[in-house]
Design goal:
Number of strands: 21
Radius of gyration: 25 Å
Largest sheet: 6 strands, mixed
Oligomer: single chain
Length: about 375
């Protein structure tokens, strides 16, 4: 028997074309049993199409898909297992909750169509409703439920028949910000209790970073980088991943000797070259770092290595930090600054010294 942590789902050079458009272009992914794996990327990158291929709602044009050693699709042999025989649960963006059925009947539906005995259905549904925090709500109809409750019903229905894999297609997009944050945590806790393997499709980087064990960042039907949230955030493979995962402060200059770039006003910023970056002195380059690495010094220190004179041109106080626009050497940069406890708040028009720790700065080709 396959042990927890072993690969449960494997996609090998899977493709899906629509005419000349390659929606999914020979992607290969191994997903481990019991992990939350996210497909992350902008609209049109192929992530939802990939999920549909895994679910059996669409058929690939090439490659192989294997679930726990069982071939679901093969371009070589022509094998194709239909969606209803893949033992996968799916929660759609719209939840697809029937308005005329009670919560109990909605969750029970997958068991009913499988001809499970009524007594067993009652036992399993009651247990599942307790698990998702809807105990006592079995008689309610979908229109009387909040968005978060409807999502719990959709999750309960998808989990009730113990699927091998749970597929989630933008499951939080219809919720307000507060409820989205709450449901992210609830989903994570529920997944850990149940132990089901989850594939999550999302365009929301925070959603992917907070929930996932691993993430595949997609663009134009291909995988740009795959790894843990920490790996993608701290060690992006290219500028697309760098800019899509999290925010970054970027300053453009010219590479000089000693691993630094020189800005237009002569200020130098030292850092480390990005992995695989082909840069030589004289090349245009970009110094990039995450906003949380920024420090603030007295403006009198400006001019020293990695301390920049800056002007705060716009400020938005959001509680734990300031979202702001900063003018550095005539270039406006959108970033955020930490709240300074015990010190006077920032003010628009204020001159500050930005500290860019050299070990947090990465130098990229422009």
């Amino acid at each position: 028997m396959t042990q927890a942590g072993d690969d449960i789902l494997r996609l090998s050079r899977v493709s899906r074309h629509f005419g000349n458009f390659r929606a999914v272009d020979e992607i290969s992914i191994d997903i481990k049993r019991g992990e939350i794996f996210s497909l992350l990327g902008p609209s049109g990158c192929g992530k939802s199409t990939t999920l549909r291929l895994v679910a059996g709602l669409d058929q690939p044009d090439g490659g192989d898909i294997t679930l726990d050693g069982r071939l679901l699709y093969s371009a070589t042999t022509g094998a194709f297992v239909p969606a209803q025989k893949r033992n996968m649960g799916m929660v759609f963006q719209s939840y697809a909750i029937w308005p005329h059925l009670s919560v109990f009947d909605t969750v029970a539906y997958p068991l009913s169509v499988r001809k499970v005995a009524k007594a067993e259905i009652t036992t399993k549904v009651d247990a599942m409703l307790r698990l998702v925090g809807l105990e006592g709500a079995g008689d309610r109809l979908a229109p009387s439920l909040s968005g978060g409750q409807q999502q719990r019903v959709a999750l309960a229905r998808a989990l009730i028949y113990e699927p091998d894999v749970l597929l989630l297609d933008e499951p939080f997009s219809n919720l307000d910000v507060k409820l989205r944050e709450q449901m992210r945590l609830e989903l994570k806790l529920l997944q850990r209790r149940v132990g089901v393997t989850v594939i999550l499709v999302t365009h929301d980087q925070i959603e992917a970073l907070s929930l996932s064990d691993r993430i595949a960042v997609m663009r134009a039907g291909r995988i740009e980088q795959m790894g843990s949230p920490f790996e993608l955030y701290e060690h992006p493979a290219n500028t697309f991943v760098r800019d899509f995962i999290g925010a970054s402060l970027q300053l453009t200059g010219r590479l000089v000797e000693g691993g630094a770039i020189e800005l237009s006003d002569g200020t130098r910023i030292a850092g480390k070259l990005a992995a695989g970056a082909a840069l030589k002195p004289g090349d245009d380059a970009v110094a990039s770092l995450r906003p949380e690495s920024l420090g603030v010094a007295d403006s009198s220190q400006a001019g020293r290595a990695n301390i920049l004179a800056a002007t705060l041109t716009a400020l938005l106080f959001v509680g734990d930090r300031y979202e702001c626009v900063i003018d550095v050497a005539g270039t406006e940069i959108r970033t955020f600054l930490p709240r300074l406890h015990g010190r006077a708040p920032y003010a628009e028009g204020q001159r500050i010294g930005l500290v860019l720790p050299a070990d947090s700065v990465t130098l990229w080709p422009r």
